[in-house]
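Hi L.,

You mentioned the student needs an example of a multi-chain input paired with its predicted structure. This one should do, with 1060 residues in total across all chains.
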Amino acid sequence: MSTQQGGRFFFNVDWITILIYIALCAVGFVNIYASIYNPDNSTLFNFSSNYGKQLVFIITALILGFSILLMDAKFFSVFSPIVYGITMLLLVAVLLVGRKVAGNQAWIPLGSFRLQPSELAKFGTALLLARYVSSFNPKFRDFKSIMFAALIVLFPLMLIMLQPDTGSALVFLSFMFPLYREGLSGYFLLIFLGMIVLFIADFLLPITLIIPVILVIGGIFIYQNRRKQKVMFSIILTTIVAIAYLFVVRVAYEKVLEPHQRTRIEIMLGQKTDPKGAGYNVIQSKIAIGSGQITGRGFLEGTQTKYGYVPEQSTDFIFSTIGEEWGFVGCTVVVALYLFLLLRLINLAERQRSTFSRVYGYCVASIVFFHFFINIGMTIGIIPVIGIPLPFISYGGSSLWSFTVLLFIFLKLDSNRMGFI
Amino acid sequence: MDNLFNRKYIVQGLFIVVALILVGQLFYIQVASDRYFLSANSNVLRKKYTFPARGVILDRNNKVIVQNEPVYDLMVTPNLVKEFDTLAFCNIIGIDMKGFHKRFDKARNQSRYQRSVFEKQLSVQTYAALQERLSRFPGFETQNRTVRHYPDSIAGQFFGYVKEVSAKDIEDSEGYYRPGDYIGKSGVEREYNDVLRGERGVENTIYNAKNVPQGSYLDGKFDTLAVSGETLISSLNIDIQKLGEQLMHNKVGSIVAIEPSTGEVLAFVSSPTYDPNLMVGRQQGNNYMDIFRQPNRPFTVRPLSGYYSPGSSFKPLDALLGLQEGVIDPNTTFNCPGYYWAGNHQVKCEHVDGNISLRKGLARSCNTYACYVFQKLMTQKKFKNKIEAYDSWEAKVRKFGLGSKLDLDMPFERKGRLFTSEEYTKRFGKYWGYTTIISLAIGQGEMSATPLQMANIMAIIANRGYYMKPHLIKGIGDKKNVRKEYLTKNYVDVDTRHFEPVIDGMQDAVNAPYGTARASAIPDILFCGKTGTVQNPHGKNHSVFIGFAPRDNPKIAIAVIVENAGYGGSYAAPIASYMTEKYLTGKLSGNRGERAEWMKKQVILPDMPKPKVKLPPYQADSVKPAPVQQPVNQLTSIN
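Structure written out for the whole complex:
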């Protein structure tokens, strides 16, 4: 690699994204420090503590990230099937040799360090999906290409479900956004949204109310399209399927979901309260965040944080620390940072000349978005508890590294957008 | 750029919408609602209260009459309780297993993590037995408190009693009281509760999620120490209070003694009484019911709420008003043939004295004399009609404190009874005159006074024309603050010179050979007074005496009522004389000591109501007065 190349490469990297990335890592470190802070034993900086480890993770993540920037952009496209293959093998391996942590067989022990293959599977999948979509520009009109793209996504999803780690598996649904951008019919998104709405409505309202509402809405559409026979037919079909879905989902809910998952959903929908059991996490998290009020209690001043009222506070519930110690102002700043990052990633993706880079960019944005929405939504009680980390902020090496790799591959692709892949 | 480029905006729009939803929910829980903030504090903070000792009460000579004794509440924190020898535990505190489970479930229902009371007020002995083995009963601890102790076991109605706050008290206090606090429910404990109660201390301790204490909240910034209640110096003289209660033993009635120059109440006896120590401790509820069920209602505070016709003890007032109005002078005589004709009915008199003067009329309690004075007052030329005459008379009588509250510093005072002219018109129609209401002249009829009001009238006469508001507490706290209202003189608008002729008569009532209370004279002390024998429609007459001593520069004014004891001279007057002598000299001279002992042994109790008669329902506390003496229009006042 010549000096000339190196100069151009640094010139082309999107430094704004890197700054947001560093800002989010810093927010993470500060709040992990606060989450673990013990007023009796706070004198020395300690590398064996979690905040010390997180610092090590951040530094190594930066090294990892900049190493990726030094790699050849073509590598990712060319080797994407191999990366995908390796991550799938790891997903299979974890089912065989993995260690069970908190009911999930998600970790492969590697010496003092544990590898979480489901994190790696995210960018493996993203790479192969980008490669597939870019290979012949299918436009997603034909059934075969949709099926193949779905297979790329659903295969790791199934493997992760077997662990079983529903939270990580659900993240793979976020690949719908890049596919949508590349031509997947918007109906898929609408159908998906409709399924969620109907599922919630089924919970909260009597079925004798929902069915007439569906019929009325169907009737309105039929009336509007009364001259188009073909459309009318699909509307009638949709209406029937929607009603059938109501009953199927009930059965599926009882049979497919684990009891604890059902409880989490019921708590989120306010159908159940269990402040000392399954609802404890969410209640305590909401109390911690709510008690921050406008400006927060201040760094290291959060009582709920300091005295351990929120379980899993440095990992999945790290946002409760931000909420308690930095208040509404701090929370809004963090949400704004994420939003800015996401919009920036979409803009970067759109400026790519190669379809591969664009699809990959959408994948990155979608995965970060999904984590961001589910994680924060869970801590403030608008999403059922799904144990996935907050990108760049939550404690943990696997998570931080995989998001770093995910992001920096895209930054590398972006810096090379004038070249051909 | 293809036509799918527009989908970028849909994706970005979705991101923005989701971010706004998150911020919206954050706004709701962080800014709009303070529910979570409060929950956070209740998560972390445990308040431990320390209870203050109530203020001590002293008598007028600084002798302690109420003090505090330690007791121990047994507290339990349910989630800290581990398996232990429940049987041994129950044996120590004297409950059975059923009782144990009942108490424990109650505590657990309140809170698993906050401690609550398991058993109240363990005695020192139980506490000692328990304390040795407390380490074997994890989750249990004791908390010090104090309860009242009355070393002399007297003056129950004066003190009142202290009880745990009720739900209503907590509500009314707007957050001051918490369950388990004590509050004065009657008597001085109630009246001066705000001064006596002191301030609760609080320790804020931070607890972590595992309920392990993490030290003081904000370095104790909000912690406070318990502050004991203020000391009260009462006006009671505990020696004569005790003597009074002994003299009134097995009798129903009251004694009120006032120091005329200050209005300080020296003795406040309500009989039957009870040992205030019974109203303390774990047996409080049972004892309360026992006392409550006793005949003659020991909880009734008779000096304040007993209604009695003043009877003949009203006659000095007749004379004072007559002198002030000029309808009589000290030398005026009236002829007493043994009765007085009021229109078509007769007011009888005990004696046939012929022409009788003011001085002798008072000494011998002549009804005829009193009626003539009343007649003259009501028929003065300056009045246009009887209404105007009566209104004038009523206003003057009210000046003496009859018919309205004297605002003694004690709850549940009643105002007595004195009719207005409207009330008479309502009762008798248009046609009534002084003859209709002539019984007022002899203190009967539509007139009732509390013993406190009678004693106060004596203080007015002793002071020759004014009174200080009577009060039971003469100093509050270390600075001995006195309420301002107790320092002003209340004049009754009768000139000082008119008092001497009246006092002459009252002196003779006790000291002259023809006086009605000559057996109650005190050697070497000029004791002035007036007997009364009050008609009682329910049974035997009440024995009444009001008096003061010494004649010059009086130190004590006293009213004694002994219900159903007959002549004023036979019981009330001797009791008053023993009280007065004891107060003035500290002892009883000659054979008067033995006579006082004899008096103590007398039993004068009203006949029990016949079993078939259903008693009217009692009211809690001492609001209910003694049975009101319904005056009867049969106009005989003897003595």
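You could point out the following to them. Chain B touches chain A through 36 residues (CB under 8 Å). The first strand of chain B starts at residue 45 and ends at 50.

Best wishes,
N.
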